[in-house]
User: Fold 3-oxoacyl-[acyl-carrier-protein] reductase from Candidatus Desulfobia pelagia.
Amino acid sequence: MSLQDKVAVVTGGSRGIGRAICLKLASLGAKVVVNYVSRADAAEETVAAIKAEGGNAVIARFNVADSADVQNAFKQILADEGRIDILVNNAGITRDGLVAMMKENAWDEVLDTNLKGAFNCIKAVSRPMMKQRWGRIVSITSVIGFAGNAGQANYAAAKAGMIGMTKSVARELASRGVTANGVAPGYIDTEMTRDLPDEVKGKILSEIPMNSLGSSEDVAGAVAFLVSDDARYVTGHFIHVNGGMFMG
Ligand code: NDP
Assistant:
């Protein structure tokens, strides 16, 4: 599996799962554009880790939720790199709360970042990828988008939205050699899940047949397959990486 000469943009590549995806794609030969929105230090660490292993990476700051920002950033990336072969929609946030108490801005922020953010980026790469007649779009959704979760109506709606959007994009772009797939992680050990109270973690573990949280590398491995030539005939599909917690 080689990604030599490919250019990959990973949104939210500065930390957590996104960082592991950046490292994996770079280790396979891709030049990686590491996106972040607020933590420049984390993005720099990701790039340094890639370079330490002999890989190639640059940083691009943009807010996926801001369509003008995304448009400008992708224009610049195309001007600098000449092409974008791979887009990984990984940037995501949570603003949890029970629906009866959920503030409107908690709904809007999560939908704008997790769902509209992915749309903004897909829109920006779809024409160049169609022209190239080769492209790979992978969106990081969640087990919550398939199963739902009390306290995460906004997050579940955004992640379920990504599933429908991915299947539609897959149908639109298939004839041009561009695939659109997703990875649906279960509970992965990152900053997003580290602060969960112990009793919540205990309950989650009791529902996972493998009895442990996953790692960011587990997710990165599934992404690497979907962006490879080996996955040429796979589109509109979701790989569950969840230790058996949900078998959709
Ligand atoms: P982290 O909180 O560790 O990292 C989030 C990343 O998203 C950071 O790089 C952050 O950038 C970036 N980001 C957030 N908002 C924006 C924005 N508006 N524009 C650009 N970048 C942004 O999250 P995880 O690594 O845990 O999660 C990554 C993805 O995986 C998310 O989509 C999440 O929903 C999904 N997921 C995670 C699971 C888990 O258990 N951890 C389970 C299932 C799905 P910065 O560093 O600048 O803040």
Residues 7-241 form a domain with the Rossmann fold fold (CATH 3.40.50.720). The chain has a mean pLDDT of 97. The longest strand covers residues 178-185.
